[in-house]
Write a structure and sequence with these properties.
About 40% of the residues lie in helices and about 10% in strands. It contains 16 helices and 11 strands. Helix 9 links the parallel strand 6 (about 165-170) and strand 7.
Length: about 375
């Protein structure tokens, strides 16, 4: 794969800006490189006025391509090595159930989303991942053959485009994820698979370690966790998946793309069952400094594909890139407008702000919410 994106000639804190990715996802992971994923799309685009909450379908890829393209570019500039197609919940049964669109097909969305992701990825030498997610049909007790037919239809759309690898993401049941992996594996490209489960396991009670074993046996090259719970909880769950693989004598690369909100309640249902979901989650947003800690924890756990999901903004992805800059050997373009650990505050005119220039202050800060009558935790509905 060739890139038309030229590395910048400047540097920040002695590190070069930008690195051009010319190898596939497995080649990079096999070499022990850190792969930074992109962030969340549906929540960010809902807040910007392009996605309708509830079913969270991705018709904006056709209706408002400029909005999706801009978010792709912001993640790329923040250091993402992978741009995922905006095809979350793009199965025909989900689109029909949502009622959000009546004149746009899943094939049209997949087509536009793949072209956009490729366009932006090529601007920075990134890879493109074509993603499928859980289906209403499975939740309604659909048969294996019928659910697989939905995945096959999406796979056929992806194979018409320039996709580097496939992502089976956001599955609450490992059984359905296995079906997705089995279908996507027939496409002849690497497959990553992530579940949105807690350390207690999937919705059927299958432990994380066993989930990982089933996914790898189905053909997944990369396994891990995405969404539903906060970063450190997701890292903990991936560690359990790693233990399960080791006990079974299986190998796979590990990935994590967690929620960008604090969820200390750590329930099986995840943030969807919190009373603040989906329109009052702002006070739970993780800080960039939280992301530094998460990225280091993930790296130390042996996870090399590290990104974000719902709630992860471009500045969060930049924080991953900056925390792991020494390991990667470079900083992203967005770091030209950001100083590591707030060093730029050294020039501030107010002494109390100037005193905040440094890692020790931000690593030890306990941020206040500014809401004295609000509880620190809630009671999940599920």
């Amino acid at each position: 794969m060739q890139s038309n994106y030229q590395p910048l000639q400047s540097s920040v804190h002695g590190l070069n800006i930008l690195c051009v990715c010319l190898e596939g996802i497995l080649e990079r992971l096999d070499a022990g490189e850190v792969v930074v994923g992109d962030g969340g799309y549906v929540m960010q685009l809902e807040r910007r006025g392009y996605v309708k909450a509830g079913h969270w379908t991705p018709e904006a890829a056709v209706e408002h391509p400029e909005a999706v393209r801009q978010l792709h570019r912001e993640f790329l500039r923040a250091g993402a090595d992978v741009i995922q197609t905006f095809t979350f919940y793009c199965s025909e049964d989900k689109l029909e159930l949502s009622g959000n669109v009546t004149d746009i097909s899943g094939a049209q969305i997949n087509d536009a989303a793949c072209d956009m992701a490729r366009e932006v990825a090529d601007e920075g030498g990134a890879l493109v991942a074509g993603g499928v997610s859980q289906t209403p049909l499975y939740a309604n007790k659909g048969s294996e053959s019928d659910v697989k037919a939905i995945f096959k239809k999406q796979l056929d759309d992806f194979l018409k485009k320039d996709i580097d690898f496939f992502m089976v993401e956001y599955f609450e049941y490992v059984e359905e994820a296995v079906w997705g992996v089995e279908v996507m594996k027939t496409g002849g490209k690497p497959v990553g698979a992530t579940l949105c489960i807690s350390p207690d396991g999937d919705r059927s009670g299958v432990p994380p370690g066993e989930c990982a074993v089933r996914l790898v046996k189905a053909g997944a090259d990369i396994v891990g966790i995405n969404c539903h719970l906060d970063p450190l909880t997701c890292v903990r769950t991936v560690k359990l998946m790693k233990e399960g693989l080791e006990k079974a004598g299986l190998k796979a690369h590990l990935m994590v793309q967690p929620l960008g909100f604090h969820t200390p309640e750590c329930n099986i249902g995840g943030y969807v069952s919190l009373p603040e979901f989906p329109f009052a989650l702002e006070t739970r947003i993780i800080t960039r400094w939280d992301v530094h800690k998460y990225a280091r924890e993930a790296y130390n756990a042996g996870i090399r594909y590290i990104g974000g999901c719902c709630g992860f903004e471009p500045y969060h992805i930049r924080a991953i890139s900056e925390e792991l800059a020494e390991e990667r050997g470079f900083l992203p373009p967005a770091s030209t407008k950001h100083s590591l650990w707030a060093a730029t505050l050294e020039t501030h005119t107010k002494p109390w702000v100037k005193a905040r220039a440094g890692r020790q202050y931000w690593e030890n800060l306990l941020p206040a919410s500014g809401r004295p009558k609000c509880p620190s935790m809630a009671t999940p509905a599920d």
